[in-house]
């Protein structure tokens, strides 16, 4: 974890934003796979990590916004635990690491909350995403556990988002470490992208790198020659000539900061003419979007700029037609790029998504679009220094979507359906980098991962 001063400072800042009541931040507990003692790899709640830093199960942090006092609730390990786990720090010793001296057992938490409720004090908590957290909140607050998400504190949600959105230097350093791990993962995938190789072999190799170098992957690896399925977590194919392999994979550091990188590689390491044509379109959208990234530029405007590049270049290939601006405004480009340009990244790979995307990426003035494709844009607001974003344009040939739109005659004034068949074997292409917004512009984080045609072909050879 970071130095205790980091967590003390964060809690002090949160107290300035929330003037009264109690803040209840419940850490995660172990989750069994198939019987109680056989658990999934533990992952702490990101908001608990942000304010308390303690990466162990069974802890709850409580902030009294009126008195300014903080307390950690948790149970010390007993001898039965120590036999299996070895010597363990006490809750008081752990709490001191995040600048808190006041601790109590979990059994005391219910008494504290009961007292606060009796005095009609406001209990602030964030939307729970795990069933056990919903049950705990329901028990503590004497409410229906199923209603806990809707009862979450909007004031606390907005305060946390305002803080976590702007990354501190120690956080940026961690994200860069995560990108460094991703570099090795993606270069390894490129080198293994040969005819006859199983997707699962590559998947296993790069997930092993993430585990060896840090805290594992930041999300389930997407690796497939069927890249037209945007989140394809199946790895059962054998690589074959003429296919493109999409690898969307990132790592977590041991402090749980994420990277999220995508590269697309031709099987065998050489682009054919049509693969190269589409790849260069996506690469141009990626590089031009990154060049334009700066404070004040909105992610929505950057998204539409990338969509116009893709539409214009697809028009040059004869796959689209008509006025580019009109085609993008109508949403015709979404046949080929049906997702948003990127998302925030930090302690979560889709940063703070559990708090609600509309709280993070939209506000009272900027509303989410209901247009197909644009509706999937996770963030539409202007960039600020300290934001960390992915920039990940793509181009996909999705048979079911193409067949549906063609049958409906949808956007036939902008799409040349008769020419699409010749490109269907490409599947999908996506290129993604992680970008920090700086005071004057931007910085692409981490060691540059090969992405030009020349670089990809060179690393594959």
SSE map:
Layout: H1 4-17, E1 22-26, E2 32-35, E3 38-39, H2 46-52, E4 60-64, E5 70-73, H3 79-85, H4 91-96, E6 103-104, H5 107-118, E7 123-124, H6 131-141, H7 154-164, H8 169-192, H9 199-213, E8 222-224, E9 244-249, E10 261-266, H10 273-292, H11 299-316, H12 324-330, H13 357-361, E11 388-391, E12 394-396, H14 399-408, H15 417-420, E13 428-430, E14 433-437, E15 442-444, H16 453-460
Parallel strand pairs: 1-7, 5-6
Antiparallel strand pairs: 1-4, 2-3, 4-5, 8-9, 9-10, 11-14, 12-13, 14-15
Helix pairs in contact: 1-7, 8-9, 10-11, 11-12
Describe this protein's structure.
The chain has 461 residues and is an alpha+beta fold. It has 2 domains: 4-164, Creatine Amidinohydrolase, Chain A, domain 1, CATH 3.40.350.10; 169-460, Creatine Amidinohydrolase. Helix content is 39%, strand content 12%. It is built from 16 helices and 15 strands. It has helices at residues 4-17, 46-52, 79-85, 91-96, 107-118, 131-141, 154-164, 169-192, 199-213, 273-292, 299-316, 324-330, 357-361, 399-408, 417-420, 453-460; strands at residues 22-26, 32-35, 38-39, 60-64, 70-73, 103-104, 123-124, 222-224, 244-249, 261-266, 388-391, 394-396, 428-430, 433-437, 442-444. A 5-stranded mixed sheet has the order 6-5-4-1-7, sandwiched between helices. A 3-stranded antiparallel sheet has the order 8-9-10, covered by helices on one side. The protein has a 3-stranded antiparallel sheet with strand order 11-14-15. Strand 14 (433-437) and strand 15 form a beta hairpin. 41% of the residues are buried. The mean pLDDT is 97.
């Amino acid at each position: 974890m970071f130095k205790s001063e980091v967590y003390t400072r964060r809690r002090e800042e949160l107290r300035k934003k929330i003037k009264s009541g109690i803040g209840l931040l419940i850490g995660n507990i172990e989750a069994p796979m198939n019987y109680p003692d056989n658990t999934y790899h533990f992952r702490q709640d990101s908001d608990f990590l942000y304010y308390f830093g303690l990466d162990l199960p069974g802890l709850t942090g409580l902030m009294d916004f009126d008195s300014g006092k903080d307390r950690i609730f948790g149970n010390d390990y007993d001898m039965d635990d120590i036999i299996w786990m070895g010597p363990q720090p006490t809750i008081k010793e752990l709490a001191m690491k995040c600048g808190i001296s006041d601790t109590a057992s979990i059994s005391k938490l219910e008494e504290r909350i009961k007292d606060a409720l009796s005095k009609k004090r406001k209990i602030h908590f964030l939307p729970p995403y795990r069933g056990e957290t919903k049950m705990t909140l329901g028990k503590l607050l004497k409410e229906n556990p199923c209603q806990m998400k809707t009862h979450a504190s909007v004031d606390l949600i907005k305060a946390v988002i305002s803080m976590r959105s702007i990354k501190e230097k120690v956080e940026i350093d961690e994200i860069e470490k995560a990108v460094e791990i991703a570099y090795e993962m993606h270069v390894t995938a490129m080198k293994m992208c040969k005819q006859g190789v199983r997707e699962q072999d590559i998947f296993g190799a790069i997930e092993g790198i993430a585990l060896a170098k840090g805290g594992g992957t930041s999300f389930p690896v997407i690796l497939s020659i069927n890249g037209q399925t945007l989140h394809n977590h199946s790895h059962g194919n054998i690589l074959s000539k003429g296919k493109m392999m999409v690898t969307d994979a990132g790592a977590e550091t041991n402090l749980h900061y994420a990277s999220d990188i995508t590269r697309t590689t031709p099987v065998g390491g050489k682009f054919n003419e049509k693969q190269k044509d589409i790849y260069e379109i996506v690469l141009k959208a990626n590089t031009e979007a990154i060049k334009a990234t700066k404070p004040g530029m909105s992610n929505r405007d950057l998204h539409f700029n990338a969509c116009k590049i893709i539409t214009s270049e697809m028009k040059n290939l004869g796959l689209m037609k008509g006025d580019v601006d009109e085609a993008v405004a109508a949403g015709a480009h979404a046949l080929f790029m049906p997702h948003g340009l990127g998302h925030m990244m930090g302690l979560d790979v889709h940063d703070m998504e559990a708090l609600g995307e509309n709280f993070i990426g939209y506000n009272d003035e900027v509303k989410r679009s209901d247009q197909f494709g644009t509706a999937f844009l996770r963030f539409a607001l202007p960039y600020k220094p300290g934001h960390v974003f992915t920039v990940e344009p793509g181009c996909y040939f999705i048979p079911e979507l193409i067949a549906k739109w063609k049958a409906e005659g949808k956007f036939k004034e902008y799409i040349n359906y008769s020419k699409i068949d010749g490109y269907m074997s490409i599947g999908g292409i996506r290129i993604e980098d992680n970008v920090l917004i700086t005071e004057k512009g931007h910085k692409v984080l981490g060691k540059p991962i090969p992405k030009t045609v020349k670089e990809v072909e060179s690393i594959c050879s």
